């Protein structure tokens, strides 16, 4: 059981219980607002890209297809900081185009054919959103530049929960599937994918999971501590402060291998075949030349080799998985097929 589709990137716009009815006028207004934001953002991009025939070294726009403060926005701004500190690009700007798990931004971006002065941050959540929203545009319509980094989800429960391990969580969940409510990010998010995989490992129907989508870690933590939801799977950085403060109990992380900076077991180590990372990457519009693609790859390479980016990796507990060019194309192809399988299990 899932909540209505949200209009945000890695987050939904508001938490909504599975039983909440859809309100068509409200939905139309929300979509209208998102479209208006997208139109304004594209105008900003067009104005920037047309100034004096700018190339990527003189003027580069980074699109975050999400609201300010989200994971993609954070990655874009960390890149921008490195570009400025190292004079990699003369002038850079971050433009937010939020909505529908990144697919509104993707649709606008895919129409910027041949524009080598604009790149977009994206990730695995966009693959889920493409499936769940039935998007007419997918990542085959853009140009892969590089995978940047991965971060990991953590499985948490309230500190006063009787659940103290993943095994206990699985047992309680299986005993009362409808009454055991999970919270996470937007429909299509890596959070929901991990919970779906956990359900499959628990001998349960992923489509029957009682899942509520939230707009971010703060709301999730509040709902956990108030008892609105019984458990959550979301980004480690979303919860680390509450874990450290003793308000939430962390049970495991979703990483494929132990993460030295995070003192938690992986689901794989605990015997569950669940290992999914929240990777983020960069793409360019379609129709750019080979030379332009090479130049954008060079710019991104300089970013990830900078001390500012190395600091960002450490501060955010991101793993360095930099993979440029054709290697990233292979990652997208493999992950797209994998994600389609997850959403087929959910009936999409």
TrEMBL record:
Region (Disordered): 1-23
Annotated family: Belongs to the UPF0065 (bug) family.
PANTHER family xref list: TRICARBOXYLATE-BINDING PROTEIN (PTHR42928), UPF0065 PROTEIN YFLP (PTHR42928:SF3)
Name of the protein this chain belongs to: Tricarboxylic transporter
Organism: Gordonia terrae
């Amino acid at each position: 059981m899932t909540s209505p589709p949200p209009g945000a990137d890695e987050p939904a716009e508001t938490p909504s219980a599975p039983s909440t009815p859809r309100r068509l006028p409200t939905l139309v207004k929300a979509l209208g607002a998102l479209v208006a934001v997208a139109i304004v953002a594209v105008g900003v991009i067009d104005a920037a890209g047309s100034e004096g025939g700018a190339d990527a070294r003189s003027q580069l726009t980074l699109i975050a297809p999400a609201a300010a403060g989200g994971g993609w926005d954070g990655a874009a701004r960390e890149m921008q900081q490195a570009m400025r500190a190292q004079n990699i690009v003369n002038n850079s700007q971050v433009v937010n185009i939020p909505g529908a798990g990144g697919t509104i931004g993707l649709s606008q971006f895919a129409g910027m054919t041949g524009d080598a002065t604009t790149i977009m941050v994206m990730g695995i959540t966009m693959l889920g959103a493409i499936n769940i929203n039935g998007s007419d545009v997918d990542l085959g319509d853009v140009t892969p530049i590089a995978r940047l980094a991965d971060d990991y989800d953590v499985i948490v429960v309230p500190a006063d929960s009787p659940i103290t391990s993943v095994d206990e969580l699985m047992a309680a969940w299986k005993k009362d599937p409808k009454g055991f409510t999970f919270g996470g990010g937007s429909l299509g998010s890596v959070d929901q994918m991990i919970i779906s995989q956990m359900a499959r490992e628990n001998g349960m129907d992923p489509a029957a999971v009682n899942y509520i989508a939230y707009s971010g870690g703060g709301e999730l933590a509040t709902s956990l501590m108030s008892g609105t939801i019984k458990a959550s799977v979301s980004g480690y950085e979303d919860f680390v402060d509450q874990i450290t403060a003793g308000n939430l109990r962390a049970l495991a992380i979703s990483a494929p291998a132990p993460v030295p900076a995070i003192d938690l077991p992986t689901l794989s180590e605990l015997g569950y075949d669940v290992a999914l990372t929240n990777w983020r990457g960069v793409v360019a519009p379609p129709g750019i030349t080979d030379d332009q693609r090479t130049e954008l790859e060079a710019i991104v390479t300089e970013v990830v080799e900078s001390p500012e980016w190395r600091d960002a990796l450490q501060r955010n507990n991101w793993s360095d998985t930099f993979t440029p060019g054709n290697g990233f194309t292979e990652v997208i192809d493999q992950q797209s097929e994998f994600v389609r399988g997850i959403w087929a299990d959910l009936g999409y």
